[in-house]
Amino acid sequence: MSEASPQEAAPASRALARLLLLGSAVSFGLMAVLARRLSRGPGAFSAGQLTVIRFVVGAAVSLAAFRIRPALYRPHNRRLLWTRGVSGGIVVVLYFLALARIPAGEAGMLYNLFPVIATALSIRAFGERPTIHLALALALATAGVALVLGGGSLHLGLGAGEALAVGAAVFAALSAVVIRAMRATDNAPTIFYYFCLGGLPVALPFALGAWPRDPGAWVVAGVMGLAAYAAQVLMTQAYGALSVAEAAIWLQLTPLAQYALAALLLGERITGAGLAGMLVGVAGVAYGTALGHRSRVP
Predict the structure, then answer these.
(1) What are phi and psi of 51, to 5 degrees?
(2) How many CB atoms lie within 10 A of CB 105?
(3) Neighbours of 213 (CB within 10 A)
(4) CA distances from 89 to 172, 212, 223, 258, 290 (A)
């Protein structure tokens, strides 16, 4: 039996999906902060190595979950499952490569264009026409992210780092549309498992070279992988009850959560523009949640 469309989902299901996206945003933020910590200093992990760890941990946790509850593994649309896996692997590799070339704020701002791109793609793919309130809320939330990550003044060039970040955003948008399409036939744990399987071969060529040997760093890397698992599964599950446009608004909480967690765990400075951006971003999410959905037609 296929799942209800986002327009037909019960209010309780949409409310739960929004909570799942909130948890996903926090988990994604934690993953990014831990990855930043692991990529610093002597004996640090490379971007490719962190990507491989993320996929290996995710696949291992998925297999353990399938062992405990075999009914969780229900692949149906294998073509889309593998498409999601490969495109997701490209996203992770491109984003980490961008972070190695340009400042994190600039890379994060460019990558965070993907919810906006996904909303545009969903109009053609699913006929999901966002309301004017939803479009305004998405613009407001994006403006909040710009304040947080760029202090309101990002000076972007046209170098390789910027191109990699934009490429990651495009593939992330395609992945979001593919996930939304699959949620009618495949569950979140199965989709995530194929994400790991398809992404691992993409990441392996970038993980060559000596690996760190510090046991403490490996523990932190394992926590990063678990945070990535939680983030992806929660996000994928939420796509079953929300349109791509509404999910895009909630995904704007991810860089805001990353900003707050970086201050808490890494001691990074919070600026006045950053605080204003967080307030603007949260206001955009609240506005879109309250007024962004379409009324059901009898």
Answers:
(1) -65, -45
(2) 17
(3) 8
(4) 10, 22, 19, 21, 34
Inside any domain, residue 291: no
Q: 134 in a domain, yes or no?
A: no
DSSP state of 268: P
Residues spanned by the domain of 24: 11-128+156-266
CA 92 vs. chain centroid, Å, equals: 10
- d(C-alpha 206, C-alpha 76), whole Å: 31
CA distance 197 to 78: 12
* pLDDT tens-place string over residues 84-126: 899 988 998 888 788 777 766 667 667 777 877 887 777 776 6
- Residues 226 and 82 sit within 8 Å (Cβ to Cβ): no
Question: Which pLDDT band, with edges at 50, 70 and 90, does 2 fall under?
Answer: very low
User: What are the tokens at 297?
Assistant: 């037609």
